[in-house]
Design brief:
Layout: H1 2-7, H2 9-25, H3 31-47, H4 52-73, E1 97-99, E2 108-113, E3 116-121, E4 130-137, E5 140-145
């Protein structure tokens, strides 16, 4: 611990900076709380003269508190989103009914949804026919004729 004793509070600032940079390099929202605890330990060691053992104990306590606070303020990993189809737009169309822009020929056609033209696959149908989206396969929507 001679490095911590020799550098004093600056060692904690360096450790805190390294932990914060490590969080940037390998994000996981865990090292950030340890980095904050190290920075607060450095500020505490700068304000109050503590032996290195006291600084290590202060860091341990602050790290536990910071991680507990971090768990409270960050969302749970499995928590349901208020916008579940944000990055899966095609899946959000399943079950909806749309009108064909062009006929489906040889199992392939297109439909306009809002401001986008989507490629569709389904049975051959004439233009103007209503279709229901039954599945999404990447950027392709699978459709079936919709009952009126």
């Amino acid at each position: 611990m001679s490095l911590v004793d020799h550098l004093g509070p600056w060692a904690w600032f360096v450790i805190g900076g390294v932990l914060l940079l490590a969080e940037i390099a390998a994000p996981g929202a865990f090292l950030v709380w340890l980095g904050i605890a190290a920075l607060v330990t450095g500020a505490l060691a700068y304000a109050v003269s503590l032996p290195w053992q006291g600084e290590v104990v202060a860091f341990a306590v602050l790290a536990v508190v910071a991680v507990m606070i971090g768990r409270k303020v960050t969302p749970a990993p499995g928590k349901a989103s208020d916008r579940p189809f944000l990055n899966r737009r095609a899946e959000g169309f399943v079950g909806r009914v749309f009108t064909l822009d062009a006929p489906i020929e040889d199992g392939i056609g297109r439909v306009r949804i809002d401001d986008t033209v989507w490629r569709i696959e389904g049975p051959d149908l004439p233009a103007g026919q209503d279709v229901r989206v039954v599945a999404a396969d990447g950027p392709v929507l699978k459709v079936a004729a919709a009952e009126r």
